[in-house]
Design brief:
The protein has helices spanning 19-33, 38-48, 51-54, 58-62, 69-94, 103-114, 120-129, 133-140, 147-163, 165-172, 177-227, 234-239. By secondary structure, the protein is mostly helical. The radius of gyration is 41 Å and the shape is elongated.
Length: 264
């Protein structure tokens, strides 16, 4: 009867993107714990492998070989997952289309198929190439945006197109490229015209605000100049009967408030 070492080992979550690294981590744990028995290693793997990955080697788990259980499980799991990943990439490269999904939803779907190891630049190129022409053009014109920001921009354009019947019908039909280009050019002109109108309206509003401020300031200046009596010194003009000083010439009457000679 084969002896099974009973030593506790901490098994990390399975890493499908790089199972070789995952097995290397586990084998380090086996070495630390002094586990060398093949059957013990095998049982540690099968008891900690998540169901979605265990199904790829279910035949080996159900009926393991008499010898080399662990190595057989390790070899087959790596090989079969690699085939599965290749199938996903093939589907990613050849089969997936936008359909009725929003661009950001389509991007997340492609990212899920590709896994985290696919570079962002490659994913952006792949995703953009599957979008409608009018969205491709807009995204391509904003090269400095990140992939997430590009997805947000694509969603905005998608929403505008879907809410505009004329543009939506053009986008969803098999329209010749020249006709599509003309329609997009017209749409671009309309957007540019609206922007010009908005900018002009903002300019007029700012001018009106400046004119109102100028008129108010002029009115206050005229009011001050009208109310200021140059025959009365500044102190009496400012403080009236409470003025402690007076400069000549000054004509101020403390009894009546009218102009008179009050030089001292």
């Amino acid at each position: 009867m084969t002896e099974v070492n009973k030593v506790s080992v901490r098994i990390p979550p399975f890493w499908p993107e790089d199972p070789l690294v995952w097995f290397a981590q586990i084998e380090d744990q086996f070495a630390i714990a002094g586990i060398t028995v093949d059957t013990t290693k095998f049982y540690y793997i099968t008891s900690n492998l998540e169901p979605q990955y265990a199904r790829h080697v279910s035949d080996i788990i159900k009926k393991p070989p008499d010898d080399g259980k662990y190595e057989k499980l390790k070899t087959e799991l790596i090989k079969r997952l690699s085939i599965s990943q290749e199938a996903k990439l093939k589907q990613l490269l050849n089969d997936e289309v936008l359909g009725d999904r929003k661009p950001s939803e389509f991007l997340r779907h492609l990212q899920k198929l590709a896994g985290p190891t696919v570079p962002e630049d490659f994913m952006k190129t792949l995703w953009t190439g599957r979008l409608p022409t009018h969205i491709q053009t807009a995204v391509a014109s904003q090269r400095k945006l990140s992939l997430t920001e590009s997805a947000e921009l694509a969603d905005c354009i998608y929403d505008i197109v879907q809410s505009t019947p004329q543009v939506s019908s053009i986008s969803n039909c098999d329209v010749p490229t020249n006709d599509m280009a003309k329609q997009l050019a017209e749409l671009t002109k309309e957007v540019a015209s609206l922007r010009t109108q908005l900018n002009n309206e903002r300019t007029r509003h700012r001018r009106k605000s400046r004119d109102r401020c100028h008129n108010n300031n002029s009115h206050r200046s005229r009011s001050k100049s009208k109310s200021y009596d140059r025959s009365v010194c500044w102190y009496h003009q400012k403080f009236g009967t409470k003025a402690n000083r007076c400069t000549t010439p000054c004509s101020y009457s403390s009894s009546s408030g009218n102009v008179s000679d009050s030089r001292k």
